[in-house]
UniProtKB/TrEMBL annotation:
It holds the Pfam family FAD_binding_4. SUPFAM superfamilies: FAD-binding/transporter-associated domain-like, FAD-linked oxidases, C-terminal domain. InterPro entries: FAD-bd_oxidored_4_C, FAD-bd_PCMH, FAD-bd_PCMH-like_sf, FAD-bd_PCMH_sub1, FAD-bd_PCMH_sub2, FAD-linked_Oxase-like_C, FAD-oxidored/transferase_4, Oxid_FAD_bind_N. The keyword Membrane does not apply. Belongs to the FAD-binding oxidoreductase/transferase type 4 family. It comes from Mesopusillimonas faecipullorum. Residues 34-215 form the FAD-binding PCMH-type domain. It comes from the Bacteria. Keywords: FAD, Flavoprotein. This is FAD-binding oxidoreductase.
């Protein structure tokens, strides 16, 4: 046992310092794209213990890889193969410290499972609106580290927009106690937003003050069959006009995506028949109303009815109850699982101005088919905020190895299209290892230089999650 491991064991106890084979669940990412090794995995139980772990690692010049639920998609929480890093799991930092219903805030620790926070808010008669497919296993610390988005960004914003204060352990082992329930605090630099989205490269988020909202009185959900992307964008515009701030969700799905879900999970049936079931595009539309069930239903049916009459919507299924609503959402949320069950694909998490999305899909599809004939396009995402999960899968006459051999070409084509249309190569998944090397191709050089200066100023030893986000020597 080396000196650092002994010191960590003395600090936390042997039960919370994992070595050898015990580290296996912590050194590969969810997609099994990245594999690494760890000197040890530590599981501190308090912010003070996190600070002491960081101080010990700094004294021994040992890198630290923070890890929450390990559900990330860009390899940000996976150590490299050197075996020199300590993985710091926040799993034991899982307390809800305080709920302030009058101020509509809650103080929570970084290791809290997102679904548990949603339930705690509901139990207090409030809504915590962050919602994404991995909410049963992802942690709020990971959501903060990547500035996660999800299905309700259209109404409530990204994770960044749901946070008022943070508690952070710095690379030197200091504790910044910045938990504040203030919606106005104009007293200097916005350190909170510096750490959110930094993927553990500037410090370790240990707790946060989150915003809460009133629970909606009623929700209405519909699955819409659409004839084109232009119709999808026109429907979004009409929904914004008709519902205003009550529009909480607008998810776009290529027809092939839902048919893939039905193929993999026959019990999940597409609630359309005939030509409607063969539609090239579908949208999941959701309204949250604060007045009454009747008011919500009348508004919802009026807008959807007008869109049907205008021919912008080919067919619509409106959920009659919460069970049907959950079934419609389950179709959407099952797309990544069905995609994984059918083999590896090349995934993209991109954002564009909504006005450019149809142009992007047309250009990218054509360029990819010309370069790699026979591929399948798995396209879905949060059209309301311009975020697409534009994925590329192998065709029936192509092997998985043949597809992955063209991976760099596929990334280049897609990202070049995104960049030419004033978009971003990462919308909600972060950069991690996956996009680290190509990031400088698509970011302003001054912006990249400023990011490097911030990293150097806060983490001069370069020990905080090295090899993620930025290329460092």
């Amino acid at each position: 046992m080396n000196d650092l491991v002994k010191a960590l064991t003395d600090l936390l106890g042997a039960e919370y310092v994992l070595l050898g084979d015990e580290t296996a669940p912590y050194v590969a990412d969810w997609r099994e794209r990245y594999h690494g090794k760890a000197l040890a995995v530590v599981r501190p139980g308090s912010t003070e213990e996190v600070a002491q772990v960081v101080k010990l690692c700094a004294q021994h010049a040992t890198p630290i890889v923070p890890q929450g639920g390990n559900t990330g998609l860009c390899g940000a929480a996976t150590p490299d193969m050197s075996g020199n890093a300590v993985v710091l799991s926040t799993a034991r930092l899982n307390r809800i410290r305080h709920i302030d219903s009058a101020n509509d805030t809650m103080d929570v620790e970084a290791g809290c499972i997102l679904q548990n926070l949603q339930q705690a808010a509901r139990d207090a008669g409030r809504l915590f609106p962050l919602s994404l497919a991995a909410e049963g296993s992802c942690t709020i610390g990971g959501n903060l580290a990547t500035n996660a988005g999800g299905t309700q960004v259209l109404r409530y914003g990204n994770t960044r927009d749901l946070v008022l204060g943070l508690e952070v352990v710095t690379p030197q082992g200091e504790i910044w106690r910045g938990l504040r329930g203030l919606r106005k605090d104009n007293t200097g630099y916005d350190l909170r937003n510096l750490f959110i989205g930094s993927e553990g490269t500037l410090g370790i988020i240990t707790a946060a003050t989150l915003k809460l909202y009133p629970l909606p009185v009623a929700q209405c959900t519909a699955l819409l069959a659409l004839g084109s992307l232009d119709d999808a964008i026109a429907v979004l515009s009409a929904a914004r006009q008709g519902f205003g701030a009550s529009l909480t969700g607008y998810e776009l799905m290529a027809g092939d995506c839902l048919r893939l879900v039905n193929q993999c999970y026959p019990q999940q049936r597409l609630p359309f028949e005939g030509e409607s079931a063969a539609s090239p595009w579908f949208a999941l539309l959701e309204l949250s109303d604060s007045e009454s069930e009747t008011h919500a239903r009348e508004r919802f049916e009026a807008v959807v009815g007008e869109l049907l009459e205008a021919g912008r919507v080919l067919d619509a299924v409106i959920a009659e109850n919460i069970t049907q609503s959950k079934a419609l959402w389950h179709l959407r949320e099952s797309i990544p699982l069905a995609e994984k069950d059918t083999g590896k694909s090349i995934k993209h998490d991109v954002s564009l101005p909504v006005s450019n999305i149809a142009d992007f899909i047309e250009r990218a599809n054509a360029a990819l088919q010309a370069a790699v004939p026979g591929i399948r396009h798995i396209i879905f995402g949060h059209l309301g905020d311009g975020n697409l999960h534009y994925n590329v899968a192998r065709g029936p006459d192509m092997s998985e190895d043949a597809l992955l051999a063209r991976q760099e070409d596929v990334y280049r084509i897609v990202h070049d299209c995104v960049h030419s249309l004033k978009g971003s190569i990462s919308a909600e998944h972060g950069v991690g290892q996956l996009k680290r090397d190509i990031l400088p191709q698509y970011k302003d050089p001054v912006e990249m230089a400023l990011m490097h200066r911030i990293k150097q100023a806060l983490d001069p030893q370069g020990l905080m999650n090295p090899g993620k986000v930025l290329v460092t020597s």
